[in-house]
Specification:
2 domains, Rossmann fold, 10 strands, 4-stranded parallel beta sheet, 13% strand, alpha/beta, 10 helices, elongated
Length: 285
């Protein structure tokens, strides 16, 4: 039996893109999967992928210790290093550490992917058959939000700040988004659900649409020009676990909306919310 180890790097949208490719490849080649999001962007030591999610209907291992000692690896770097998490230093050290696009036979017992180039999947039915949110804190918060506001019938608005802000254009991205949704009929009684990590841009949007439901809570209190996922333990106002629950609750809230818009068109967070929207109820079930 061969294995596919999915390492983690960058933001949640990037991780989902890589994970979807990994799941599709594992299904095609009958590989056992382990998701190793032990990197510094995802955890400060206590959390991992399985804290918040579970996989079903696919071959898995419960621990990297289940991989035989004599297994071969691709890339070869991971032989003897499979428990090493991705890090900034590791990703720029010039060594090949990622299998990249999963579209061939790599000729090894263990394939390691997660931070390289990936294939994109717009039909996510295969992924929804495997991927589930399991953290009750996330599920309960989404239920509470849906009880307060008609999220499934609303338009989702993603106002991205932090590491995607250009000071000279800070307000222009929100103004452009407001113009877009207005042209598409937002003034005709449309409900709006907003998630954001940028208090200033959020206020600009509220000036145009004051009746919007502001879903975000902690993310707009933990603002950083680096991006919240890049902050170390000493820079966080809350624990990494609490911040991650907040982020994931916002993501799956956004994905639950009828239409989804963003101030940043190449945001993976926004794009993956769009792609998962048709199967979101299954993922949250």
């Amino acid at each position: 039996m061969k294995y596919l180890v999915v390492k983690g790097w960058l933001g949640f949208g990037d991780r989902l893109e890589s994970l979807k490719m990994a799941i599709a490849f594992a299904q095609q080649h009958n590989l056992k999967v382990y998701v190793d999001w032990s990197d510094e962007m995802w955890t400060h030591g206590e959390e991992n992928f399985y804290t918040y999610f579970k996989l079903i209907n696919i071959g898995q291992i419960a621990s990297l210790d289940e991989i035989p000692e004599d297994a071969t690896y691709y890339p070869e770097f991971w032989k003897g290093n499979i428990k090493t998490p991705y890090s900034h230093q590791l990703t720029i050290n010039g060594k090949q550490i990622d299998a990249g696009v999963l579209n061939k036979d790599f000729g090894a017992d263990v394939i390691v992917c997660g931070c390289g180039m990936r294939l994109l999947y717009y039909d996510c039915a295969f992924f929804a058959n495997v991927f589930r949110v399991k953290d009750e804190r996330i599920l309960q918060k989404i239920r509470e939000r849906k009880a307060r506001f008609p999220i499934a019938q609303s338009w989702g608005i993603h106002i991205r700040g932090t590491d995607r802000i250009k000071n000279g254009y800070r307000s222009m991205s929100v103004q452009a988004l407001c113009s877009l949704v207005t042209c598409q009929g937002a003034l005709n009684g449309v409900k709006m659900t907003v998630v954001s990590d940028d208090k200033e841009n959020l206020q600009i949007f509220k000036n145009y649409y004051p009746d919007s439901f502001i879903a975000s809570e902690l993310s707009i209190q933990q603002e950083s020009i680096k991006g919240n996922h890049n902050l170390g333990k000493d820079a966080l106002k809350f624990s990494k676990d609490v911040i991650t629950v907040d982020l994931l609750t916002d993501f799956f809230t956004l994905a639950s909306c009828d239409r989804i818009y963003s101030t940043v068109k190449d945001s993976r967070f926004y794009k993956e919310a769009q792609r998962l929207h048709p199967v979101i109820n299954t993922i949250l079930s």
